[in-house]
């Protein structure tokens, strides 16, 4: 969607520049202008047209159209006040006025056109984005930053040249020119904000490593945005602002819980933001193992003598009963003798009577137990038993 706004900004920038500078001054005719426009649209449409054609060829164009366009348009959804429209109403005319003065002050027609084009394109993109974009995020500003850098470079170099005429200041600039000073400042800021000696990707790499170790390619995983990358997701939509708002308005079915059950999803990532019903379901039926990962299981709580346990499972899968202080838990599970082996449990209420001496019993997904994963307390540090 940002691409459409950028294309519109480029067209507006070119149109305004053509008016301010003039065809005669630039020495170009309508044939050249139309040829340039045709080349622009042809080159700009190559990649998106190829993608659209590929999806249409495989018969999934309706899904592509919905998730790329329709899904991301929710009437009335915004994260900024309506009065911000004033920014465009006031800001863009000021940008065009600034561009007009630059064109008038620049004797070379080509240089004037370049300056005007960059300024108007960046100004239209920024003011239109802030004023009319329904839901702003940091990545929406990415197309603006390179243009803003180019715009700021000119005034900085001009000021640098003027200061260089002052003998006292010139001594400083000979040691460190203004561009070099800005480069050093940017480097220092980058080091302070994102120090390279801190492995901030460790959490994500640990998440991927544990997910791959815990699951097989055919296993389903519940995640928010496809963080697990290499495993198929049980719930198709990504869980973000537009999805949550559509679910809240009843425009989309929230079947995440049912999908977890139907696909026998035993691994989930519990993020901070998702529909409350789904969040409660994951908290109640999946136990944390660290790195935001949770595995299907339930803590056993006895209501009598510490030997008799009634519990409920929701995800149909093979489970094992484990304890922190006993190697093999033994007893009677649903009327049949149990000696630590995996047992398939269908959704519903089950009964376990322990004959061993284990404490803190847990019904846990058998595959996770076999691969040396154990549930942890939420307060402990993340990790797995390797």
Structural features, described:
By secondary structure, the protein is an alpha+beta fold. It has 2 domains: 2-165, no CATH class; 199-386, no CATH class. The protein is built from 14 helices and 12 strands. The strands form 2 sheets. Strands 1, 2, 3, 4, 5, 7, 10 and 12 form an 8-stranded mixed sheet that branches. Strand 8 and strand 9 form a beta hairpin. Helix 1 (2-21) packs parallel to helix 5 and helix 1 (2-21) runs antiparallel to helix 6 (109-132). The longest helix has 28 residues, at 30-57. The chain starts with a helix and ends in a 16-residue tail after the last helix.
Quickly count the domains.
Answer: 2
Low-confidence stretches: 378-386
| Average pLDDT metric | 88
> Structural class of the helix and strand makeup?
alpha+beta
Summarize the main sheet.
8 strands, mixed
The arrangement of helices and strands along the chain is HHHHHHHHHHEEHHEHEEEEEEEEEH
Helix content: 40-55%
Q: If you compute it from the alpha carbons, what radius of gyration comes out, rounded to the nearest whole angstrom?
A: 31 Å
Query: How many angstroms does the end-to-end distance come to?
Result: 45 Å
The rough form would be described as elongated
Total number of β-strand segments? Answer: 12
Number of separate helices = 14
The proportion of residues in beta strands is 5-15%
């Amino acid at each position: 969607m940002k691409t459409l706004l950028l294309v519109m900004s480029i067209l507006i920038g070119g149109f305004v520049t053509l008016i301010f500078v003039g065809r005669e001054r630039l020495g170009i005719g309508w044939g050249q202008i139309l040829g340039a426009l045709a080349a622009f649209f042809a080159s700009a449409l190559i990649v998106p047209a190829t993608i659209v054609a590929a999806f249409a060829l495989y018969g999934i164009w309706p899904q592509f159209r919905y998730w790329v366009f329709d899904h991301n348009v929710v009437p009335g959804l915004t994260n900024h006040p309506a009065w911000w429209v004033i920014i465009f109403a006031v800001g863009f005319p000021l940008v065009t006025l600034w561009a007009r003065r630059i064109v008038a002050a620049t004797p070379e027609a080509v240089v004037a056109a370049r300056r005007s084009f960059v300024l108007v394109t960046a100004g239209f993109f920024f003011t239109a984005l802030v004023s009319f974009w329904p839901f702003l995020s940091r990545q929406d500003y990415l197309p603006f930053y390179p243009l803003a850098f180019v715009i700021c470079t000119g005034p900085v170099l001009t000021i640098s040249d003027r200061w260089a005429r002052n003998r006292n200041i010139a001594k400083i600039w000979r040691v460190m020119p203004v561009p070099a000073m800005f480069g050093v400042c940017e480097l220092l800021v980058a080091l302070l904000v994102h120090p390279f000696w801190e492995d901030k990707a460790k959490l994500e790499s640990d998440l991927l490593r544990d997910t791959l170790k815990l699951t097989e390619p055919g296993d389903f995983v519940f995640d928010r945005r496809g963080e697990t990358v290499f495993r198929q997701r049980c719930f198709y939509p990504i869980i973000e602002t537009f999805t949550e708002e559509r679910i809240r308005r009843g425009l989309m079915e929230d079947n995440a819980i049912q999908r977890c059950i139907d696909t026998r999803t035993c691994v989930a990532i519990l993020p901070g933001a998702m529909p409350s019903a789904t969040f409660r379901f994951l908290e109640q039926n999946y136990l944390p193992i660290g790195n935001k990962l949770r595995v299907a299981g339930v803590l056993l709580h006895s209501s009598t003598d510490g030997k008799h346990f009634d519990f409920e499972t929701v995800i149909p899968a093979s489970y094992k009963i484990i304890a922190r202080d006993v190697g093999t838990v033994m007893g009677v599970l649903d009327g049949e003798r149990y000696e630590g082996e995996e047992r398939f449990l269908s959704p519903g209420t089950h009964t376990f009577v322990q004959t061993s001496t284990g404490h803190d019993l847990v019904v846990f997904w058998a595959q996770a137990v076999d691969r040396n994963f154990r549930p942890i307390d939420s307060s402990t540090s993340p990790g797995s038993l390797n």
